[in-house]
From TrEMBL:
NCBIfam families: PRK09542.1. PANTHER family: PHOSPHOMANNOMUTASE (PTHR43771:SF1). Belongs to the phosphohexose mutase family. The keyword Metal-binding applies. This is Phosphomannomutase/phosphoglucomutase. The keyword Transcription does not apply. Keywords: Isomerase, Magnesium, Metal-binding, Phosphoprotein. It comes from Streptomyces ruber. Its cofactor is Mg(2+). Coiled coil: none annotated. GO terms for molecular function: intramolecular phosphotransferase activity; metal ion binding. Residues 8-133, 157-256, 266-371 form the Alpha-D-phosphohexomutase alpha/beta/alpha domain. GO terms for biological process: carbohydrate metabolic process.
Length: 454
């Protein structure tokens, strides 16, 4: 009987509980299907620190090699280290990780050569179809000649590439607390930071895919409580938290206060525009702060607004030749990193910006954090379309607002905006609101929530 993969093949990746929803036998079929859809003759494969990751990764490699494809295994790595290998080696790649999900989960993030994304519209649907068919009828016949499986260490090359993109040679000494959340930041940070003028205070650097200290999702305020406290105790200049596969970074200032990812997007955008001669396109999704397009224009750039989601960001990066892109979720994309996202490169930019002047991080980011945001507020609703229609009806007749439906519903006025988007996977509506002051933001937030929640 064919497997039903509808619950584990998501919009951008594969993700599910091991072994309940998928296992090494299916991973081997995914390896074979991936090579067929990409037409690869060689691929690169890496994995995170989850207990199931080495076995799943090796099974995928076996499936690819059985089809005559040579496999380069880079072993333990962050997701952006896998993207580096895909770009530098010009090979399609597969990363075994479930990012910030609990320990019993695992998944595959796949890309074509040069770290180009594989999502539902760019090959993932075809991969799912093949795996489902083969799980019922049996794997395809092996190739006449099996491919090779070889090991390669890319960590130092990855670190050198990142450091070639940010000049940290003249920064003042900084004390930085880094919370790796027992994820892959504990593997990459020591090598990337080696030799820099940084007094590094490591937290939870031990690789442990059971996440004994807290979930490796720094966007949840509960998971940065320890980091905020440690920054204050140490009198550090800043704190940085990485998620489980270390492709996202989250920053707190010297007071332990979180720095909104939109402010980091604006800061890095200004630096990247300066590095590229004061011009260039910068991508931002529609729920980043108004600060982002403002800062981009002030620094000579052209902001381009997109839907939420890395496949949309990466597609616009490629279409426009953008130099940088940022999302509210702390994903940061760089043209000089094959348009892929790397939290580590964003972290180096923050360190360079802070260390290149004498002020505090809170003072530095104030110029990039100009408005009051609600953060993302999720509401469980049974009829997403009906609640969105009710919101639209409530605001459609007003002459002081503009409505657009690029992604969900966005309502924009002179002093505020809000966006409401349905979740692709859960019965949720996600609200983000922003205004010029706290009172206005609270009013608009509460108005929208009253309609959403009926």
């Amino acid at each position: 009987m064919s497997a039903d993969l509808s619950t584990i093949v998501k919009a951008y990746d594969v993700r599910g509980v091991v072994p309940d929803q998928w296992d090494e036998a299916l991973a081997e079929l995914f390896g074979a299907a991936f090579t067929q859809v990409t037409g690869a003759t060689a691929i690169v494969v890496g994995h995170d620190m989850r207990p199931s990751s080495p076995g799943l990764s090796r099974a995928f490699a076996r499936g690819a090699a059985a089809r005559g494809v040579d496999v380069v295994e880079i072993g333990l790595c962050s997701t952006d280290q896998l993207y580096y290998a895909s770009g530098a080696l010009d090979l399609p790649g597969a990363m075994f990780t479930a990012s910030h999900n609990p320990a019993r989960y695992n998944g595959i993030k796949m890309c074509r050569a040069g770290a180009a994304p594989v999502g539902q519209d760019t090959g993932l649907a075809e991969i799912r179809e093949l795996v489902e068919r083969w799980s019922g009828s049996g794997a395809p016949e092996p190739a006449a000649e099996t491919g090779t499986i070889t090991r390669r260490d890319t960590l130092r090359d990855y670190a050198a590439h990142l450091r070639s993109l940010v000049d940290l040679s003249s920064v003042r000494p900084l004390k930085v607390v880094v919370d790796a959340g027992n994820g892959m930041g504990g593997h990459t940070v020591p090598t990337v930071f080696e030799g820099l003028p940084l007094d590094l205070v490591p937290m939870y650097f031990e690789l442990d895919g059971t996440f004994p200290n807290h979930e490796a999702n720094p966007l949840d305020p509960e998971n940065i409580v320890d980091l905020r406290k440690r920054v204050r105790e140490e009198g550090a200049d800043l704190g940085i938290a990485f998620d489980g596969d270390a492709d996202r970074c989250f920053v707190v200032d010297e007071n332990g206060d979180p720095v909104p990812p939109s402010a980091i997007t604006a800061l890095v955008a200004a630096r990247e525009l300066a590095r590229h001669g004061g011009s260039g396109t910068v991508i931002h999704n529609l729920i980043t702060s108004w600060s982002v397009p403002e800062v981009v224009r002030e620094n000579g750039g052209s902001p381009v607004r997109t839907r939420v989601g890395h496949s949309f960001i990466k597609a616009e990066m490629a279409r426009t030749g953008a130099i940088f892109g940022g999302e509210h979720s702390a994903h940061y994309y760089f043209r000089d990193f094959w348009n892929a996202d790397t939290g580590m490169l964003a972290a180096l930019h923050v360190l360079a910006a802070l260390g290149g002047q004498e002020g505090t991080l809170s003072a530095l980011v104030a110029q990039y954090d100009r408005y009051v945001g609600s953060g993302e507020i999720n509401s469980t609703v049974d009829e997403q379309a009906a609640r969105l229609a009710a919101l639209k009806a409530a605001y459609a007749g007003r002459g002081d607002v503009e409505l657009d439906e690029l992604d969900g519903l966005t309502v924009t006025a002179a002093d505020w905006w809000f966006n409401v988007r349905p979740s692709n996977t859960e019965p949720l509506l996600r609200l983000n609101a922003e205004a010029r002051d706290e009172a206005t933001m609270s009013k608009i937030r509460d108005e929208a929530l009253a309609i959403i929640r009926g």
